[in-house]
From TrEMBL:
Domain ACT intervals: 495-568
Pathway(s) served: Purine metabolism
TGS domain boundaries: 391-452
SUPFAM superfamilies tied to this protein: ACT-like (SSF55021), HD-domain/PDEase-like (SSF109604), Nucleotidyltransferase (SSF81301), TGS-like (SSF81271)
Family stated for the protein in its record: Belongs to the relA/spoT family.
Protein's name according to its UniProt entry: (P)ppGpp synthetase
Domain HD span(s) in chain numbering: 43-141
Family annotation (SMART domains): HDc, RelA_SpoT
Taxonomic lineage from the root: Bacteria, Candidatus Colwelliibacteriota
InterPro entries: ACT-like_dom_sf, ACT_dom, Beta-grasp_dom_sf, HD/PDEase_dom, HD_domain, NT_sf, RelA/Spo_fam, RelA_SpoT
Pfam families with a match to the protein in the record: ACT_4 (PF13291), HD_4 (PF13328), RelA_SpoT (PF04607), TGS (PF02824)
Organism (species): Candidatus Colwellbacteria bacterium CG10_big_fil_rev_8_21_14_0_10_41_28
PROSITE patterns: ACT, HD, TGS
Length: 568
């Protein structure tokens, strides 16, 4: 019979199983004896595949056992109490968590919230529950073709929108990409067919080319005495290729990393030595060297990336990392436990429980605090979508810390992300040394500096442009504490209209004066008509004393010809 589980892996898994895992296997076999999967194979295969995945991720004994038992409470007469009696509280707790997550399907709006909430609640308690759910989903996605089409589509969308991003945030890039790829043919059937028919030949041609230059790469690494473990190349996943094509007007010619080299080396020093050897061989493309070892991605990803101009003037991407970095990139949080095991030498013995308090995953902590901020389920869902399921940008504090913010984040979001007090007392912002309005959209690698003033309160207008739930909740909270209605203390805005002759640096000079008076600038416009240059600064203040001081100072700036203001 056709089976979705590798029988060789099953034998190895059962050979190495501990008594608890063997017992869980027999228990699951009995409980699911009469059940078949939609594919016609025994139900047991599904729970075996789930447990084997968890074992390969290096998880602890109760988690692997729970992988085998994860569907018994849901699908058979077995109760949670029986599990606790037979296998202990830990296993019963984990299976309960998985059952709870599985209970609510991702359909209507309200139900989505419930589902996501339960998932996150479970995660905040114990990440192992999420890992079991991810292993379960991985096998379900592999056998998705046997389900009716409406169910197939719903599960694929849920996988792409909820589980793949979750895996990514846990640092499991391998799994995240795999889930996206498994979902892609179901969520985008016609696009998938287009990719297949337009790309298969190109992938083949590309691989042939890399095969041709591979010996040169290996020779260069050898000559540079780099401790190499492996040199191979991998085709870009269809799902991520499709996302990239959307950004490049579907022009395949502009995609240079269809197939990329991956060099695995022995040490961090070898990573940089390998990068040097490659750059010595072929010139790198400016702006395409990424050092995620010195500056890891927020999900923990570490690697060196570079794109070089190789033979026949063709561009080739290289990814260089150590074996440890590679395993972490594939398995994320789970990889940490696998190392403990390797050091301890005994299977399962050294594996520890994964609690959400793990310091390496700061966003789990964020989740906890956000949960408390929201009472309206719709708002909670929206905040989740915005904060987790969208692209992120990475900006830098003046001290060099890298912050992970959602796409479209503003200096106010940044300020609240650093600290609620900094958010509340924020009056201005500099990006890469230049004053910007507070609703300015930040971009990756911007250096952001917040100008604060003691005792300042946030403006209700900020709610119009902030994108993070943290900032929104903090602004609301602070405003609630200061007045009964948001409308009442909404400050008036003032527009300064300044006539000048054109000069580089003039806008900065004026911005400096305004922000030194602790007035925030919301917008700056400039226009030139008939030789007259006009700057308009929209500022958040109604303090006439301050305004007249600012005007006096601006009048004294060189090249300022006249100044006017009005409340708006
Ligand atoms: Mn299952």
């Amino acid at each position: 019979m056709d089976t979705s589980v590798d029988q060789k892996k099953v034998r190895k898994f059962l050979d190495e199983a501990t008594p608890l895992i063997k017992k869980a296997y027999s228990f699951a076999k009995r409980a699911h004896a009469d059940q078949k999967r939609k594919s016609g194979e025994p139900y047991l295969n599904h729970v075996l595949a789930t447990a084997i995945t968890l074992d390969e991720w290096g998880l602890d004994e109760p988690t692997v056992a729970s992988g085998l038992l994860h569907d018994v409470v849901e699908d058979t007469p077995v109760t949670s109490k029986e599990l606790a009696d037979e296998f202990g509280e830990d296993v019963a707790f984990l299976v309960d968590g998985v059952t709870k997550i599985g209970n609510v399907k991702y359909r209507g709006h309200e139900k989505q919230v419930e589902n996501l909430r339960k998932m996150i609640l479970a995660m905040a308690e114990d990440l192992r529950v999420i890992l079991i759910k991810l292993a379960d989903r991985r096998h379900n996605m592999k056998t998705l073709e046997f389900l009716p089409s409406n169910k197939r589509k719903r599960i694929a969308i849920e996988t792409a929108e909820v589980y793949a991003p979750l895996a990514y945030r846990l640092g499991m890039q391998g799994l995240s990409g795999e889930l996206e790829d498994l979902a892609f043919p179901h969520t985008h059937p016609s696009e998938y067919r287009w990719l297949i028919s337009n790309l298969e030949a190109r992938y083949g041609e590309r691989e042939k080319y890399l095969e041709k230059i591979k010996p040169e790469v290996e020779k260069a690494l050898k000559e540079a005495l780099v401790g190499v473990i492996s040199v191979d190349f991998r085709a870009k996943r269809y799902s991520s290729l499709y996302k990239k094509l959307l950004r490049y007007e579907m022009d395949i010619e502009r995609i240079h990393d269809l197939v990329a080299f991956r060099i695995i080396v022995k040490s961090v020093a070898d990573c940089y030595a390998a990068l040097g050897a490659i750059h010595n061989l072929w010139p790198p493309m400016p702006g395409r060297i990424k050092d995620y070892i010195a500056m890891p991605k927020p999900n923990g990803y570490r690697s060196l990336h570079t794109t070089v101009i190789s033979l026949e003037n063709r561009m080739v991407e290289f990814q260089i990392r150590t074996e440890e970095m590679h395993k972490e990139a594939e398995n994320g949080i789970a990889a940490h436990w696998a190392y403990e095991e390797a050091k301890g030498g005994k299977k399962y013995a050294q594996r520890k429980a994964i609690s959400a308090g793990h310091t390496e995953i700061a966003w789990v902590e964020q989740l906890r605090s956000w949960q408390q901020d929201f009472t309206d389920p719709k708002e909670f869902l929206d905040s989740l979508k915005i904060d987790f399921l969208k692209d992120r940008i990475f900006v830098i504090t003046p001290r060099g810390d890298v912050l992970d913010l959602p796409h479209g984040a503003t200096p106010v979001d940044f300020a609240y992300h650093v600290h609620s007090e900094i958010g509340n007392s924020c009056v201005g912002a500099k990006v890469n040394g230049e004053m910007v309005p507070l609703d300015h959209s930040l971009r990756s690698s911007d250096v952001v500096e917040i100008i604060t003033q003691k005792g300042k309160k946030p403006s209700p207008d900020w709610l119009d442009f902030v994108v993070t739930s943290t900032a929104r909740a903090q602004i609301r909270n602070t405003l609630k504490g200061t007045s009964h209605s948001l409308k009442v203390d909404k400050p008036k805005k003032i527009e300064l209209k300044i006539k000048t002759t054109e000069r580089v640096g003039l806008i900065r000079d004026i911005s400096d004066i305004i922000s030194r008076s602790h007035v925030s600038i919301q917008q700056v416009n400039s226009e030139s008509r008939g030789g007259v240059h006009t700057l308009r600064f929209l500022c958040n203040t109604e303090d006439k004393k301050k305004i007249s001081k600012i005007i006096l100072k601006i009048k004294n700036i060189k090249d300022v010809k006249g100044i006017d203001y009005r409340f708006v």
